[in-house]
Amino acid sequence: MTDHTYRTATLLVHQGRDRDPATGASTIPVYLASTYHHTGGKSGEYDYARSGNPSRDQVEEAIALLEGGVRGFAYPSGMAAIGSALALLSSGDHLIAPDDLYGGSWRYLSQVLPTQGISVTFVDQTDLDAVSAAIRPESKAIFLETPSNPLFKIVDLRAIAAIAKERGLLTLLDNTFMTPLLQRPLDLGIDITIHSATKFLGGHSDLLAGLVTTADPALAKRLKFFQNAFGAVLPPFDSFLLSRGIKTLKLRLEAAQSNATILAERLVAHPAVERVYYPGLPDFAARNLHFSQASGAGAILSFELKDQTQVAPLLQRVKLPIIAPSLGGVETILTHCWSMSHAAIPVATKQQLGIRETLLRISAGIEDVDDLWEDLERGLK
Ligand SMILES: *Cc1c(COP(=O)(O)O)cnc(C)c1O
Predict the structure, then answer these.
(1) What's the pLDDT at 4?
(2) How high is the pLDDT of residue 3?
(3) 78 in ligand 1 pocket by Cβ < 6 Å?
(4) Category of 205 on φ-ψ map: left (φ > 0), alpha (ψ -120 to 50) or beta
(5) CA 247, CA 117: separation in Å to the nearest integer?
(6) What's the pLDDT score for residue 341?
(7) What is residue 97's predicted lDDT score, i.e. its pLDDT?
(8) How far apart are CA 68 and CA 81, in angstroms?
(9) CA atoms within 13 A on the CB side of 238
(10) Any ligand 1 atom below 6 A from CB of 257
(11) So which residues are the catalytic ones?
(12) For the chain, which domains are there?
């Protein structure tokens, strides 16, 4: 059993449980059982796998320890995690959300929540007055993402948490880009942290998973109730894969972040590139704010090409990156946000938000950065 006073690098490896209590095995076995014997008719620690499973418990405890939560929850995808956390809202409630956010979250918030009687206002959350002005009597929560995707807007988490506390609103933050290694939102006053663990936490592009945690025992109780009632739970084998991925998060993310920094600097100097969005660049406008709430710039950057006719040749010429709508893997992933990660967002909205057809996003992997650069440079010729 791991003590919660350990530092993050240690917690990543040992997590909540680092050996099987029954056998001493070095990894928690994949418990495939759907149900558990009730000795003498009495239920033990486990009774039915939707309610609890040792493989899933391992990652649920891990995320709670890593984020400073009281309890964690694991779901079969990041969207299932977001939907399950937002099930804390009910019909008649109002939600405030960022105008620049992950395309799938935008789809869920703009097209699913309203059918359940929950209204949503999208605002530029870098403007604190706009956030305050969006609060209505029926407002229940503020959904957040920072850095935002794909334009790297930085939202002041302490300030928004203070506004929310004053007005009695819940705060939920999608911490996928940063991971608990670089940003611990619960320490800054955020109520609920959400992850697409499909990305950096899983880390190998071989798994879909979502995680949620909170430091508030009453919220944890309601999240647990809904998870069991609704049944969107992370399966045992996927829990094992996720736990394995988490063990190497520090090594992977630090290597990827260092590659992202080098790629960002080289892209800034490239004549075909109009601008680069990356919190690690010296002239990144919200750099101080970002580093007041996060300990690293992360491994993702976006850049705009000067000329739209260069996008297609670049996507055709590059050989190393996977061209896909994802991020956070050991392999570099190149995304054309317009047609991939943000395809669900209507053209007019994208244009209004400044998501242009010339915008590309790189999730740096852990390859040799010179190979990555030479490949990109060939693509940009
Ligand atoms: C990928 C992603 C999600 C959705 O996660 P899935 O695991 O694909 O369901 C949510 N938020 C962000 C920031 C993401 O990158």
Answers:
(1) 58
(2) 53
(3) yes
(4) left
(5) 41
(6) 82
(7) 98
(8) 18
(9) 17
(10) no
(11) 50, 102, 174, 199
(12) 8-247 (3.40.640.10), 249-380 (3.90.1150.10)
